[in-house]
Amino acid sequence: MPEDYKNNPVIFPPADIMSKCEYGAFEGAEKASLYEEVITRVRAA
After folding, report:
1. pTM for the full model?
2. Helices (H), ranges, 1-45
3. What is the pLDDT of residues 11-39, one digit of tens each?
């Protein structure tokens, strides 16, 4: 890969920025199904 890609902080944020971020871990199919149902209800409202 080109250096300008590998060193791009937008694509690869520094560790101090990443430590402030949240992420969603997969919690199983049952939880995913429940989440999808809730989102569908909210969008339909």
Report:
1. 0.45
2. 3-6, 15-18, 29-44
3. 999 999 999 988 778 889 999 999 999 99
